Amino acid sequence: MTGFRIGMLLTAALMLAAGAVAGDAAAPPLGLPPVPVPEDNPQTVEKIALGDKLFDDKRFSSTGEVACATCHDPKKAFTDSPLKTSEGVNKLTGTRNAPTVVNAAYMTAQFWDGRSPSLEDQALHPPVNPVEGGLADHEPILEIVRTDPEYVEAFQRVFGKSGDQITMDEVTKAIAAFERTKVSGNSPFDRYFYGGEKNALTDAQRRGFDLYVNRGRCVSCHVIEQTQAVFTDNRFHNVGVGINDIQQDVPKLADEYIEAGITGEDVDIEVLTDKRSSELGRFAVTTGFDDLGSFKTPTLRNVAVTAPYMHDGSKATLRDVLVHYNNGGVTNEGDPVNDFLSGGIRPLDLTEDEIDDLVAFMDALTSPEFADLPKSLGLEEK
Amino acid sequence: MSKKLLVVAGGIIAVAAMVTGLGVRADEFTKEDVDRYQDEFMSVVEKGRALWGSPDLGTNGVACGQCHPNAANTHPETYPKFQKQLGRVVAFREMVNWCLQNPLEGQPLGLDDPDLVAMEAYATWERRGVELAPGKH
Amino acid sequence: MTDSASRRDFLKGAGAAAAVSTLPLSMVKLAFADPAQDFTFAYISDSHIQHIKGNEFVRNWDRGLIRAVAETNLLRPKPDFVMFGGDLAQLGTKEELDHGAELLAKLDYKPRMVMGEHDYYLDLGEYWSKLFGDQYYSFDHKGVHFVVLNSILTFDEWTHERWPTPEQRMLEMAALDNPNGSPFMVGEKQREWLRKDLEKVDKETPLVVFSHSPIQKIYKGWNFWTDDAEEVQALLKPFDKTTVVYGHVHQIQYNQIGNIAFHAVMATAWPWPYPQSYAQADQHLPVLTVPMNRADPFFERDATGWQFIDMSTGRVAMDYNLYNNTNRRVAFNAAKGHPEDMAFQDPARRIAPQVHY
Question: Which residue, among C6, C8, C10, C304, would best test binding to A if mutated, counting the most A CBs under 10 Å from its CB?
């Protein structure tokens, strides 16, 4: 056994012991439901360790410098905060902000536009995107995992496969298994609402919580329920970010997509390299009118430490986000609202203090393991 | 002399008893009571009906009855229930308050506000006869 | 997701509901294979623009019309024309009709208009006619004869004598459940006009009637009702391919009476309950209808929408564009002789949101 492998196994075992792994092993963290695990990809300690290794491997890129962990950095709550949009090979930037991996296991679709149905599938895309991993295809990855001795040993033990039997299916299954251990709850909010700790929230946070489920109108999309909270409805909504800037272009752009019938792999490249296409959101994937300018509701867990915000990273602080919502889906009050705005978005008439309270509540959603990371609340020092 | 007094007194008491119900036991209620209570209730139902059609409950002139004619689709028989729009289990009048704040763009009423009770009375009256189904989505 | 779903299906949005995907336009054409001239038209209805004060209108209803107009403009292939099905305004005021007209002006098409009771009862259509023209008329398009009726009239006494002011009259007709209301009708004068108009039309010509009220008797308490429905239906009966398209009800309904197919359109403003959800009254919802999905009132556009209609078979095939809900397609099944929902007509294929109670 190599020292490296011992280390990986220990880490994975610790994760299991700490109750961070779902399935029949341990209970989910306070405030979360059990992590969904597909039948064809059960969690095992060794698979998780292998996934961790793959996640960190910079060789899976054209320059040898970009791994999953580059944009989803474990030290930054699995984002690349404070970057607005991620930097891939040769510092090429795309159009979208890297979402956190933490609690992504609860999503029913991956990517901001939901074009991937699972964690397994999602892992296929970035390595072969020109502005992310820059590879022409997955062959270089397969070459490495089929020949690197540590991978050879690991894949044999985890999947009982070697050589050409190892496909991207095995690779992505391991990565997904690792990602499924990245769940976090037990935040001050969880302790207050599900743990019965009346003093876990400050007064401001308690007021913010009240606004969240009432006048703030947050709870319908960023779901909190009676016994658990995943903070997302796993649906897609146009909240007026980004699309407002291309309102005049929407008819022509939509036309192009409908006429060209761009689907599948092309969408990946289009939306990450062409900003205007990116703003179409899920419409670029489905060409359904419903989806014009729609993006997936992200989780709000740990949101305070995963700035900047929205699909394009255009909101620097949480307060900026709330001002946008308070204005009814526009950045500056009085700006024209885009025609396809979600029916759930409307002006909120919150006071400045109420906005501050909501921001304070957002802060209460940070799990203890990320509590020391820098925050981007946008509150003035009082 | 005393006998006459007794008869007169008895007569007065009998009349008084008819008028004041003194002849009825303290913890008993009569059919007249029941009818009167029902009328009292219906007066509040009517108040609720008027509020249901009022454009003044919120700030934008929208009335409950615009979307809920005869209080249809409010389902008072299913409360308390988990209400997705509020993220928790609530009572009927909390959902009325949600409507006051959202589609009607107004302020919520206190949970003991007579107007809120009146609207609840009206909606429940229009749904009378339907089996209770608490929690039903 | 617990299975690895195929990416292709997933991209189409099929997911778990793959078994009940709606048929695309081209497959419908193949199924019916009838050589009529093919065209589509869009139908927007019941916007209920509501004035608050000054330059303020109820934002919720404004957004409904705005979105319908924006999406209609994106339709490909482009529809031949656009209809507006009535109730542009809520209380028929000049401000509301003007604002509604302003929002409609953003259409890339000039819509033909149908009168609704909310447009009519303040000034009996005077300002509406200045803006939009005739209250009833007919036109032909690519071999189909279209008739527009003003079907929200009522008894003369109620209209002219009962109410002290026009505002009062409008208010009394505005509340759906108001017992002081009065049943809708087409009326003798228009029926006579219709009879003469139809005399010149060949019985083989497809006929489509646009009306605000249903030209049926569904539920009188909410004026889902046309009092002279039978008389009007009798005039349409001789035509083999006849459809009535109606607004007013703010929900999906469809029906077949004899040889006449009936299709309701959605409102852009707000949905109404199905009559069977009023526990205290009897009503007759067409049993054919597969109901629309129940609304989540948080999403202000839920259970609202607009539609486009395909005339490839000479009969109406109606596509309901429902925001953030599976679109619905109700088309005439020639084998069965009535309209049906192309995905959900079979009770075994219904989904939970279609259960109303």
Answer: C10
Whether residue C25 has pLDDT greater than 50: no
Q: What is the mean pLDDT of residues A263-278?
A: 77
User: What are the DSSP E strand ranges found in chain A?
Assistant: 236-237, 295-296
Q: Answer yes or no: is B118 within a domain.
A: yes
> How far away is chain B from the Cα of C264, in angstroms, using its nearest Cα?
18
Task: Determine, yes or no, domain membership for C349.
Answer: no
Please report whether residue C25 resides in a domain.
no
* R_g of chain A, CA atoms, integer Å: 21
Domain count, chain B: 1
Domain of residue B66, CATH code: 1.10.760.10
Helices (H), B21-113: 31-52, 64-67, 92-101
pLDDT in the model for residue C282: 77
User: Among all chains, which residue has been given the structure tokens 């004068």?
Assistant: C189
Residue C59, in any domain of the structure: yes
Say if C106 falls within a structural domain.
yes
Q: Return the number of CB contacts < 8 Å for A and B.
A: 22
Quote the domain boundaries for residue B91. 33-126
Distance from CA of A296 to the nearest CA of C (A): 13
Kindly provide the ipTM of the predicted complex, given to two decimals.
0.88
Cα distances from C88 to residues A82, A343, B79, C108, C128, in angstroms, run 49, 20, 36, 18, 10
Determine, for residues C357 and B61 on separate chains, whether the beta-carbon distance falls below 8 Å.
no
Domain-located, residue B86: yes
Q: Which residue of A has its CA nearest to C75?
A: A255
Count CB neighbours of B115 within 10 A: 18
Q: Which of A173, A142, A149 is nearest to A46 (CA)?
A: A173
Q: What is the pLDDT of residue A245?
A: 85
Q: What is the pLDDT of residue A12?
A: 57
- Give the per-residue pLDDT at A248: 87
Token pair of C27, please? 């497959």
Chains that touch A (3 or more CB pairs under 8 A): B, C
Residue C123: which domain range?
Answer: 41-343
Q: Which residue of C has its CA nearest to B59?
A: C52
**C233 touches C227 (CB < 8 A):** no
| Gap from A217 CA to chain C (nearest CA, Å) | 8
Residues of A in contact with B89 (CB under 8 A): 226
Residue B7 within a domain: no
pLDDT in tens, chain B (137 residues): 566 666 555 556 555 555 555 677 888 999 999 999 999 999 999 999 999 999 999 999 999 999 999 999 999 999 999 999 999 999 999 999 999 999 999 999 999 999 999 999 999 999 999 999 999 99
Residue C303: HSE in the Cβ half-sphere, 13 Å Cα cutoff: 21
Q: What is the pLDDT of residue C314?
A: 87
Measure the CA–CA gap between C148 and C272, rounded to whole angstroms. 24
pLDDT at C37: 66
Flag whether pLDDT at A226 surpasses 70.
yes
**Hey, what are C25's tokens?**
């336009």
Domains and CATH numbers, chain A: 3-179 (1.10.760.10), 184-382 (1.10.760.10)
Chosen from A189, A210, A212, A214 to mutate, greatest number of chain B CBs within 10 A: A214
In a domain, B18, yes or no: no
Burial category of B78 from C-beta neighbours within 10 Å (exposed 0-12, middle 13-18, buried 19 and up)? middle
Cβ count near A172 (within 10 Å):
22
Give C275's DSSP letter: G
Is the overall model pTM greater than 0.80, yes or no?
yes
A39-84 confidence digits (pLDDT tens): 999 999 999 999 999 999 999 999 999 999 999 999 999 999 999 9
- Per the structure, how many domains does chain C have? 1
Which CATH number goes with the domain that contains C228?
3.60.21.10
Contacts of A115 in chain C (CB under 8 A): 11
Q: pLDDT tens across A342-358, in order?
A: 999 999 999 999 999 99
